Known about the structure:
The structure holds two protein chains of two kinds. Chain A has strands at residues 9-13, 18-23, 32-38, 45-50, 55-56, 61-64, 70-75, 84-91, 104-109. Chain A is mostly beta strands. Chain B is mainly β. Chain B is globular, with a radius of gyration of 13 Å. Chain B starts with a strand and ends with a strand. The A-B interface holds A 31-32, 36, 38, 42-46, 49, 87, 91-103 and B 4, 31, 33, 35, 42-43, 45, 48, 55-56, 91, 93, 95, 97-108.
Amino acid sequence: DAKTTQPNSMESNEEEPVHLPCNHSTISGTDYIHWYRQLPSQGPEYVIHGLTSNVNNRMASLAIAEDRKSSTLILHRATLRDAAVYYCMNLKAAGNKLTFGGGTRVLVKP
Amino acid sequence: DAGVIQSPRHEVTEMGQEVTLRCKPISGHNSLFWYRQTMMRGLELLIYFNNNVPIDDSGMPEDRFSAKMPNASFSTLKIQPSEPRDSAVYFCASSLWGARAEAFFGQGTRLTVV
């Protein structure tokens, strides 16, 4: 399975942007990049996904490097409710085997 | 839709007993996933199905674990016999097939084996 690398934790102040990096060193040309997050005591929830172009939705933005070896999830204005563990992963185009690594624990300070 | 529904939410059982966890996926979804989460090992994919057929069960820890999907609206994960090290939160998720699909997770079943 393709492996991703993320920092263990990050801190942010409320109302400030958060940039979460992910290295996709073994990504192949047709793999999709997905991000999920897990709020305390809840199941994971989908955040965003992309292939090559940057993507925006109501939750976040996803910036994908030109060589696709890295991506950055951007929370534009962090709120206390954004405190969670954020996971990035690669999904093979031919399937949807969703495997989670260690993720980045985001702490948002008021 | 009510989302992915798991039952029970909490289960406490004695070592050696059989445990059955249940999952109802979102209607229309054709992929279903079972995960286990512990502090030590994080979120582990145990098995996943497509169109009710197991596609990859390489994450199932041992023969004590089995999973079935008799139809598109129901799946079970069974542990027999249960052991204390099986204590964890078990999540079920469903999605449409394909790498662009968003997966939806249930609230999980917290299993404690004493």
